[in-house]
């Protein structure tokens, strides 16, 4: 069996099962749903490279992608959840 690194080098991806604990994902999604998605403040957008407020689809999703989600000073709980998830992923670099 290949190591994750070998598999990645051969295939260009590797799927880590249950890398991020469910409670951390739930915390991140809760903060996103309550604070970020419903916010009337602008966010810097990855797709347009501009500050824009959220525009939601009819299904309730943001139409534009977010940039630098780890650095939203007005949303410290969300940033902490993002950083916690990213920290776990960096362990495997």
Give a written overview of the molecule.
- The protein is built from three helices and two strands, in the order H-H-E-E-H.
- It is mostly helical and 93 residues long.
- It has one domain.
- Strands 1-2 form a two-stranded antiparallel sheet.
- Helix 2 packs antiparallel against helix 3.
- The two termini are 19 Å apart.
- The mean pLDDT is 87.
Binned strand content: under 5%
Number of helices: 3
The averaged pLDDT comes out at 87
Radius of gyration, CA atoms, in whole angstroms = 16 Å
* Low-pLDDT residue spans: none
Tell me how many strands there are: 2
Write down the domain tally.
Answer: 1
Quaternary structure type: single chain
Major sheet: 2 strands, antiparallel
Backbone structural class: mainly alpha
The secondary-structure element order is HHEEH
How would you concisely characterize the structure shown here?
The chain is mostly helical and 93 residues long. It has one domain (19-90). It has helices at 4-11, 22-36, 76-90, and strands at residues 43-44, 51-52.
Write the layout of secondary structure elements.
Elements: H1 4-11, H2 22-36, E1 43-44, E2 51-52, H3 76-90
Antiparallel strand pairs: 1-2
Provide key terms for this protein.
single chain; 93 residues; mainly alpha; two-stranded antiparallel sheet
């Amino acid at each position: 069996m290949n190591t994750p690194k070998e598999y990645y080098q051969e295939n260009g991806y590797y799927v880590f099962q249950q890398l991020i604990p469910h409670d951390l994902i739930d915390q991140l999604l809760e903060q996103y749903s309550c604070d970020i998605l419903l916010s009337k403040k602008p966010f810097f957008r990855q797709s347009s490279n501009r500050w824009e407020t959220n525009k939601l689809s009819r299904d309730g999703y943001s139409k534009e992608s977010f940039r630098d989600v780890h650095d939203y000073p007005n949303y410290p709980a969300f940033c902490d959840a993002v950083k916690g998830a990213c920290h776990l992923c960096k362990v495997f670099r």
